Amino acid sequence: MKALGLEATMPSFLDGRRQFSAEEINESRCITKIRWVVEAANHRLKQFKYFANTIQNSSLVYLESDMSIACALINHYQPPMTRSKLEDEQIGAQIMQLRQQKNKIQLLIIFNISFSATCVFQLKRARSYAEERCSTTNLTGDVAYSVHRCKIIPNLIRIPTQSAHSNRVTYHPTIHFTDQAILGWWCDCFTGARFLGCCSHIASAIWFLSYQRWQTQQRHIPSGEYKNLATDSIQVSDFYDSSDDDDSQRYTLT
Q: Which residue among 73, 87, 174, 237 is buried most deeply as judged by most CB within 10 Å?
């Protein structure tokens, strides 16, 4: 690999720690941005049923030639997965710059900043986190969405957000902003220290506070009505008669 000018690398592991460092998670984010090209190429190759299944040992001697034929067919008949754009170099330079950048909000919190409470994820999960936070799918009305405001630093807030995987775990996405821009963010979840992108908890807080809370038209969410079809078991007596016939004969021992 090195002889070809390539370097093999992989994302970091927690190894018992609670959170990745900003450098580690930024590096992992760079790896995932590059890895998708490899995964997309593998997906095209596995469209051939031969490569999608287990290959027998007796066929390994033909594997190189078979793969060359499959790759030649893909290259000739399928369009490129992506094409170069004018902004690619600019995006690449920005990624390399953010890759080594420290998370300023994390550094502020390390200095034991105290917060006082004041009442009221990644965008694909932003709505679900906000609905869980407000206990309703109607986010256009008056909802309880608590925000913690920093006593010392202006415009520094955090929004306690329950983990999607454990009811006992609460994360604290923290955002520093002005009237015109978001200056920085940090969260105490596993990937919350990265500055190259952000975690779902940060994305949900920004999405709700800067966009959703200003919407006036409710978005119809059919799944939010399913809970009305079920009855809470705690409200049903253990001796509840589920028979459709009130005069039905109970079973007895004889």
A: 174
